[in-house]
Amino acid sequence: MTVTVDDRIEREVYVPAPIDRVWRVLTTPEHIRAWYAPGGCEIDPHPGGRLQFRWDEHGEFHGLVERAVPDTLFRFRLALEPDHAPSDPGEATLVEFALSPEGRGTRLRFAESGIRALAVPDDAKAKHAEYATLSWTSALEELAAIAAASHN
Predict the structure, then answer these.
(1) What confidence tens digit (pLDDT) does each residue in 54-67 have?
(2) Where are the transmembrane segments (predicted)?
């Protein structure tokens, strides 16, 4: 049986809030807890910085910031497995948030890539892609709602 695995998940959302507000909601621990990691978060949003996202039901996931350009781009590698710092591409995916001004608000584009390069069987890759698609879609909707509500 052949399993088809998407290598990239992409989503975008318009946020009716200024770009600096969206950046703060995207990169500060108190906001990340609200839209993504309810168990807590630690983040050093600078290139080479480490991050940890926690969920009671899933554990702690580690990442490494690759690029952080305020109000523009936030890119990091995120480990596939909990409690494991990613040390090569087979252990992590690349997560990227790109922000751009649009009218009176912000266009937020999201991508998670490198799924096919993960060092796990194809069925595990497909399961990750399916779960990540659902969880990131929900997280982005929540992030947009928080940024918009805080702006009003």
Answers:
(1) 999 889 999 999 99
(2) none
Rounded to 5 degrees, what angle do the CA atoms 18, 24, 53 make? 140
Residue written as tokens 């695995």? 5
How far apart CA 135 and CA 152 sit, in angstroms, is: 26
Q: Which of 42, 75, 37 is nearest to 56 (CA)?
A: 37
- Measured CA to CA in angstroms, residue 104 lies from 16, 74, 150 at distances of 7, 21, 15
**For residue range 83-140, what is the model confidence (pLDDT) as tens digits?**
888 777 789 999 999 999 999 999 999 999 999 999 999 999 999 999 999 999 999 9
Alpha carbon 14 to chain centroid, angstroms: 16
Read off the tokens for 58: 């899933």
3-class secondary-structure state, position 4: coil
Digit-coded pLDDT (tens) for 31-48: 999 999 999 999 998 899
